[in-house]
Amino acid sequence: MVSSSLAVLHALDKANTRWYHITSIVIAGMGFFTDAYDLFCITPVTKLLGRLYYFDPSSATPAKLPVAVNNFVIGVALIGTLAGQLFFGLLGDKFGRKRVYGITLILMVICAICSGLSFGSTAKSVMTTLCFFRFWLGFGIGGDYPLSATIMSEYANKKTRGAFIAAVFAMQGVGIIFAGLVSMILSALFLSYSNAPAYHDNPVLSTQPEADFLWRIILMLGALPALLTYYWRMKMPETGRLGQFRANNDYKLFSSEFNRRHGKHLIGTMSTWFLLDIAFYSQNLAQKDIFQNTHLISKPANVNAIQEMFQISKAMFVVALFGTFPGYWFTVFLIEKIGRFYIQLIGFFMMSVFMLIIGIKYTDLSDPAKHQTGLFALLYGLTFFFANFGPNSTTFVLPAELFPTRVRSTCHAMSAAAGKAGALVAAFGVQSYTLSQNSHKIKHAMIFLAFVNILGFCCTFMVTETKGRSLEEISGEDEGMHQDEMEMSEAQTEGRSVVI
């Protein structure tokens, strides 16, 4: 006799797309909107922090954050994200996805507000409290990765599962756009109602006192989408698959049986995400320096603090709107046609090509006399497009599909944490190397990143295509099910609607 659990799972895979699928995408996706806003709004904020808290009246150049401080302000949230991914990923398998899902949003709301309230009378005290709260902000952000991916994969039917998971992740692109847009709008408003103080002969080197409110408001606004989503996230039920297959496989994580079945896949998802994030975060974190060399923004010595922030935010918004954002949604619409495997291969390869061209031709591309600014911006935008119509999306999707239910959240968390380890390499390694804006260093960094992408291309062959197959078929959890049982199950569930 066919078990009721088999009938339920078969019904989940055959279910038509319904309203609860759409609402689940929005609810889970708003977490990623918040994640991206909080992580990427720091790019323009760091410039302002340098001008505000490290101002030197005797200097002839605008102040900026010391290299170590800049790296830590950016990197501490990534460290928190890595820790949060592992912590909440384990809890998601141990206690259930829903029980810990709301905690991540609470952390994000509290820490986004507290980041903006960072207190102290000296630069050291303000930076210390800011970094403290951004660590815990990252901790909450990290929990959203495995939980959102796992919940969406277990809710979805097998025909649209990849598109649904990718759509959740695509909200990251919207968050990046809003990080630039909000910073740009607020900077413009502050420019309209403020004047540079007279404590320096050169107004360009002065920083408007109102600017101290500007960066705080930008950071605190990150709490709003998470706060608005909390109620609906708490109303989401536990996934049907967790109840049916939680105790299905008796082999443990890292056991010889797990390694035989899934070890290569885990190495593949971890290595590709690690390599991807070295390139992806290097692009994002260093973009304020790239923008200057593509002449999308003025040199710091030619603008005051808020003007510089406005220009960086505007450039970030334009690149995100025309390069980053479309790539995410190309993946959503094509992932079930092309497949995860080939999209990832195409993305890694094209990123490598464009980064190699930028690296080799960097001197000419960044030379205003050569009039190649438009080509530089196009090549730079295309690297973002193929990152997102490529491995930045698929590395999120594949770990949510390849592993058994009882360890799915943990394996996704390990893969995502490997990615954040790559992001830390970008923040403390690649960005530090290019922070001086030396053309030769940026050139060498781009060539290095092209090589990193080729490694990601090669490591992709350790994963397998998951398109069109049920989660149980992919992970091997349907072993022992005979064809006649499957046919009986289909007959049993025909016409039945499954509430999850």
Topology:
Blueprint: H1 4-14, H2 19-40, H3 42-53, H4 67-95, H5 97-116, H6 123-155, H7 161-192, H8 211-220, H9 223-235, H10 240-245, H11 256-285, H12 287-293, H13 305-338, H14 340-360, H15 362-365, H16 373-388, H17 391-397, H18 405-434, H19 439-459, H20 471-475, H21 483-493
Helix pairs in contact: 1-21, 2-6, 2-7, 2-9, 3-8, 3-13, 4-5, 4-6, 4-18, 5-6, 5-8, 5-9, 6-7, 6-18, 7-8, 7-13, 7-17, 11-17, 11-18, 11-19, 13-14, 13-16, 14-16, 14-17, 14-19
What CATH architecture do you see?
Up-down Bundle
Give the mean pLDDT.
83
Order of helices and strands: HHHHHHHHHHHHHHHHHHHHH
Low-confidence residue ranges: 196-201, 480-500
Shape: globular
Terminal CA distance? 23 Å
Q: How is the CATH topology named? A: Growth Hormone, Chain: A
Q: Quick one: CATH class?
A: Mainly Alpha
Rounded Rg = 23 Å
Tally of contiguous helical segments = 21
The quaternary structure here is single chain
Strand content: under 5%
What is the domain total for the residues? 1
Name the features:
mainly alpha, Growth Hormone, Chain: A, single chain
Characterize the structure shown.
- The protein has helices spanning 4-14, 19-40, 42-53, 67-95, 97-116, 123-155, 161-192, 211-220, 223-235, 240-245, 256-285, 287-293, 305-338, 340-360, 362-365, 373-388, 391-397, 405-434, 439-459, 471-475, 483-493.
- Helix 11 runs antiparallel to helix 19 (439-459).
- It is globular.
- Mean pLDDT is 83; it is low at 196-201 and 480-500.
- It is an all-alpha fold.
- The chain has a single domain, classed as Up-down Bundle (Growth Hormone, Chain: A), CATH 1.20.1250.
- It comes from Eucalyptus grandis (Flooded gum).
